[in-house]
Design brief:
By secondary structure, this protein is α/β, with parallel strands linked by helices. The chain has 2 domains: 3-147 and 313-325, Rossmann fold (3-Layer(aba) Sandwich); 150-309, Dihydrodipicolinate Reductase, domain 2 (2-Layer Sandwich). The protein has helices spanning 13-22, 84-89, 106-113, 135-139, 149-163, 185-196, 210-218, 254-264, 311-325; strands at residues 3-8, 28-35, 58-59, 70-73, 93-96, 126-128, 143-145, 167-179, 201-202, 228-234, 240-248, 271-274, 289-295, 300-307. The strands form 2 sheets. Strands 3-2-1-4-5-7-6 form a 7-stranded parallel sheet, covered by helices on one side. A 7-stranded mixed sheet has the order 9-10-8-11-14-13-12. The chain is globular and about 60 Å long.
Length: 334
């Protein structure tokens, strides 16, 4: 297979990470980057990992979806939805790394993103791209909503426990810490880099956009509408780690929880269960999610989940979804 790939927003952090993966993908023959503000710019001038043979950025006005097998949106929220009708008229498969299609209820989306959603019925067409849980749907879909980084790290350890009914769905606390690359190039250049040096910053505690995304997907298994989620930025560029606090039901011990994970993810290449506590260094540069289990007092447990926010939390999972869509080996390019 020889895939022609288009990427809009290729000059951003996730866009560059995506190009870096795809330029070494055995089934990708051509990568065309597009940009709103950097037409004519070489990606190699922004990231030395990118080959000089990659085409310079074209203006977004030149996009013709029918010219590509797969197209990635690495854009701000509100962009991909504006191309929705043009996408449907083409045969191009689309993977959207923005949040435009992650939340099925558009009223909820508008509340958290403070934008008007222009595609009220997208839930009938788009698929949430949590690779390990929606393979069949991803394979047959035209538009994939690539999950957020925080939701990915939370959902992978929580869904199996809810499916097995071994934790209480109304007592879930997520303390999440991410490298500052997750804030995007604009925020970094506008002062976040200086602010976060030798610092640690909780933010958006009252109303983080990833809360409804997490609750939506957990509620597919069992109603979860009261999770407590606290995001933090810490002074590393990439990597994400979550401490997830749950209450385990009577009669369930640590061995049983580990057994659930090992059986559930026995055939998953990218999900690993550790005995020891994972660190950021264990996952940076990989598409892996590492999970560990730790018993506390009175049936309280801490689940640690670690991913690279730019890989499994963004561009890596996007490529994994592309591989699924085209029937390729899931680890191709990864």
């Amino acid at each position: 297979m020889s895939l022609k790939i288009g990427i809009i927003g290729a000059t951003g952090i996730t866009g560059l990470e995506l190009v870096n993966i795809l330029q070494n993908h055995p089934s990708v023959s051509e990568i065309t980057p597009f940009s709103f503000s950097s037409a004519g710019k070489s990606l190699n001038s922004l990231d030395e990992r990118i080959s000089q043979e990659i085409n310079k950025c074209l203006s977004f006005e030149a996009i013709n979806f029918s010219s590509f097998d797969c197209f990635f949106f690495c854009t701000e929220n509100g962009v991909s939805m504006s191309f929705y009708e043009k996408i449907l008229k083409s045969e191009c498969k689309v993977i959207d790394l923005s949040a435009d299609f992650r939340i099925k209820n558009t009223n909820t989306w508008e509340k958290f993103y403070n934008l008007k959603h222009c595609v009220s019925n997208h839930a009938n067409v788009t698929v949430y791209g949590l690779s390990e849980f929606y393979r069949n749907e991803i394979q047959s879909s035209q538009i994939i909503a690539n999950p957020g980084c925080y939701p990915t790290a939370a959902l992978l350890p929580l869904i199996p426990l809810l499916k097995k009914d071994v934790i209480y769905n109304n007592d879930i606390i997520i303390d999440a810490k991410s490298g500052f690359s997750g804030a995007g190039r604009k925020n970094i250049e506008n002062g976040l880099f200086d602010e976060i040096q030798n610092n640690f910053k909780p933010y958006n505690i009252d109303s983080h956009r990833h809360v409804p995304e997490i609750e939506q997907e957990l509620s597919v298994v069992k109603e979860c509408s009261s999770i407590i989620f606290t995001p933090n930025v810490f002074p590393v560029f990439r990597g994400l780690i979550e401490s997830i606090y749950v209450t385990v039901k009577e009669g369930i011990d640590k061995k049983e929880i580990i057994k659930i994970y090992e059986e559930y993810y026995s055939e998953e290449e990218f999900i690993h269960i550790y005995k020891n506590i994972p660190t950021i260094k264990d996952v940076v540069g990989t598409n892996n999610c590492i999970v560990s289990v730790h018993k506390r007092n009175n049936n309280k447990y801490t689940i640690i989940s670690a991913i690279d926010n730019l890989m499994k939390g963004a561009s890596g999972q996007a490529v994994q979804n592309m591989n699924i869509m085209f029937g390729l080996k899931e680890n191709s390019g990864l």
